[in-house]
Every structure is written in structure tokens, then in C-alpha cells.
Amino acid sequence: MPEGDTVRQAAKRLHSALAGTVLTRSDLRVPRFATADLTGRAVLDVTPRGKHLLTRVEGGLTLHSHLRMDGSWRVYANGQRWSGGPAHQIRAILGNADRTAVGYRLPVLELLRTTDEDRVVGHLGPDLLGPDWDPSLAMANLLRDPALPLGEALLDQRNLAGIGNVYKSELCFLLGVTPWLPLGELSPERAAQLPGLARKLLEYNRDRPVRNTTGRRDQNLFVYGRAARPCLRCRTEVRRADQGDGSRERPTYWCPVCQQGPAPVSGS
Ligand SMILES: [Zn+2]
Prior knowledge:
The chain has 268 residues and is an alpha+beta fold. It folds into 2 domains: 4-121, Alpha-Beta Barrel (N-terminal domain of MutM-like DNA repair proteins), CATH 3.20.190; 135-254, Helicase, Ruva Protein, domain 3. It is built from 6 helices and 10 strands. It has helices spanning 4-18, 118-121, 135-142, 150-155, 165-175, 188-204, and strands at residues 25-28, 43-49, 52-57, 61-66, 72-77, 90-95, 99-104, 108-113, 239-244, 249-254. A 4-stranded antiparallel beta sheet has the order 1-6-7-5, covered by helices on one side. Helix 3 crosses helix 6 and helix 5 packs across helix 6 (188-204). It is elongated, with a radius of gyration of 20 Å. The two termini are 22 Å apart. The protein binds zinc ion (ZN). Zinc ion binds at residues 231, 233-234, 236, 255, 257-258.
């Protein structure tokens, strides 16, 4: 599942394949932009913003895409076999003389004026891996609604941009509190730790192919995906329950001993 680090890696791949070259192939397979043709335009840069990807091309246009749950951008040498999924899942193809970038299962794909980018990313809070990162603003955003459970607030990209469902569980574990703890009940010490810790996690994984939050080689994650297996710190069984993110329920993991705060009784 794409998080801030995954999106950044995708942006880096696209940027190194396309930036500074002229597009010789352009195919946007969404009804609204099916007739748009970007060939003949140079790609200026590919920039991640939170979990959004902005591909800027000559002539003041930006191709905005979002990976959501299982979208991806793959880059292939021309002539190489494409392997990202069946052809009907392809939403975008951008190519130059050497390479072709193929966007699979992109739930968001739209062409807009570069000057209008704020319309699609202007609502985002400070980007954990961006030049605009501002820990005090991120914390102030999070604390706007003190009754909101920490896990839900962390997923809200308007507070801070880049945390997805995996980091949500891992960050709560590292803070020693459950994802259901209302923000207003987070101790000042933990609140002070939170932004730095979140950034450290994403920084550490910026260029890693496999996400790692533990710093250990034998085990990449503390709790996420480890239901009913022993906690790495205290050996208690890790639990799993769903927690909403404002639109749908997401699997959430925690250690009932290492993490303080409320938790559902029905978790497994
Ligand atoms: Zn534990």
C-alpha cells in the first residue's frame, strides 16, 4: 500500500526516466483526457506532494496522479516486457526515445494547469519528506480536534502528509499509545516526540525497497500485519482491529501491553 515513501520512490523513478526528455508517446486512458496528447513536450520534473504525484510538462501542464491503495507507476526500457498487471489496468503511458512509464490502476489521473496544482494538493498539511516540513504546524493541525483518535488524525493528510496505514500502526507503537487514544490525552512529552519520530520513519525508508520501522534485519515491522504473533518487545500477542480513516475501515495493529490507551474489546 502506497505511503509517502513509496510515492517518493515512484516520483524518483519517473523523474530519472522522463525529466529533461521529450515525450514521444502519450496515452491517457481515462475518458476525460483520452484525447489529450502530450507528445512533443519536454517533461520538466516529477514531484511527490504527500501521496500525490505531479508530473510537470512543458507548456504549463501538470499530470496529477494518486496511487491510493494499489496503483503504481512502472518504468521500462523500450522493448522490455511490461509486467505491472493486465493491459486493462493501464491508465497512463508516457514514453521517450529510451524509456516508457506505465501507470497501473491509478484511481486519480488528471491533466491540469501547473498554476492550478494547489486545487489538488493545496489542502495537504506539511509534507513529512518535503521542503515545506514544519513539525510545529503538523502538531498544531493534529491537535485541532483533541477528541479525535490519534490513528484517524495521522491518516488525515490535511494534518500532515505522507502517513499511510502501515506507519500509523507503527508510529503508535513507537509512541507507546494505542491508535484509539484521543489526541487531547497524548502527554506533552509524546506530543513533542511525534512529528520527529514520524519524519524519522519516513526518512529511514525513503530509498528502501522494503519498509522497515524496527531497524532490525530479522523483522521489518513491530506490529503491522503481525496479529496473534508475539510483540517484539514484550512477547504479548499483537492484536488487530479495524479503525476508520474518515471514509473506510482500515486494519490496525497494536500491542495491548506496550501501548497505553483505549482499544476495541472485539479486536483479534
Ligand atoms: Zn508489547
